[in-house]
């Protein structure tokens, strides 16, 4: 009885101090590794970074994760079983082409093996792609296809100027993932083709192409979206607040779902 009491007390203390609830989201800084000239003339990292508060950054998405109990982390080298240990969600966005960086880090077979192992053991991987002009498809597809999801290398959901409604997607009623988001924006996306265990989680309401899919693999989950989607510009930087767009709600819905799945 004494041992049980001590164990229960220790668990209660861990929960109270937050240790038992700690989950980590690790953002890839290796496959996406872009630079641009800063105001001081020096080259600086940018694009899809936690610390980037400009339209190109992921600072708002980072806030969504932290609000939902996640700790933010980055990975500046290739993924391995060792450096993914302790990660609940691994986020890869828009791997570089040779037009974006002089020496892009292409996804290699050993990277795919490490990520597959991570997922099968219970990890979650979120992969955000882009349209055919802005993402490295060949090697990225090697990774997504390991989970039954193929990036079609096309450009859907084009927009003229600020006619945002041309890029609108509507989630179905009583959706299991997007419980609060109904009217979301994804501009110039690539569509997806599915096989194996992959299932659509967001489909265009009239053209019926898949823009987001999920695959249950082993104890884990893989989600692929044909768009960077949740960077600051469209969460809801350019769209504006309280204008009827639910990208912020969609991010929160997805992260809450990850929180329930996460080990």
What does this structure look like?
This protein has 263 residues and is an alpha/beta fold. It has one domain: Class I glutamine amidotransferase (GATase) domain (Rossmann fold, 3-Layer(aba) Sandwich), CATH 3.40.50. The protein has five helices and 13 strands. It has a seven-stranded mixed β-sheet, with helices on both faces. The chain is globular. The two termini are 29 Å apart. 39% of the residues are buried. The N terminus is likely disordered.
Keywords:
globular; 263 residues; two-stranded antiparallel ribbon; seven-stranded mixed sheet; alpha/beta; 5 helices; Rossmann fold
Give the arrangement of secondary structure elements.
Layout: H1 2-17, E1 23-28, E2 34-37, E3 43-46, H2 59-67, E4 70-75, E5 89-93, H3 109-120, E6 124-128, H4 137-145, E7 149-151, E8 168-170, E9 183-185, E10 192-194, E11 198-203, E12 210-217, E13 220-225, H5 247-261
Parallel strand pairs: 1-4, 1-5, 5-6, 6-13
Antiparallel strand pairs: 2-3, 7-10, 8-9, 11-12, 12-13
Supply the number of helical segments.
5
CATH superfamily: Class I glutamine amidotransferase (GATase) domain
- Return the string of H and E elements: HEEEHEEHEHEEEEEEEH
Which CATH class is shown?
A: Alpha Beta
Second rung of CATH, namely the architecture: 3-Layer(aba) Sandwich
Rg from Cα:
19 Å
Q: Biggest sheet, open or closed, and with what strands and sense? A: 7 strands, mixed
- Anisotropy-based shape: globular
Q: Estimate the helix proportion, in percent.
A: 10-25%
Q: What oligomeric state do these chains adopt?
A: single chain
Count of discrete domains? 1
Poorly predicted parts: 1-20
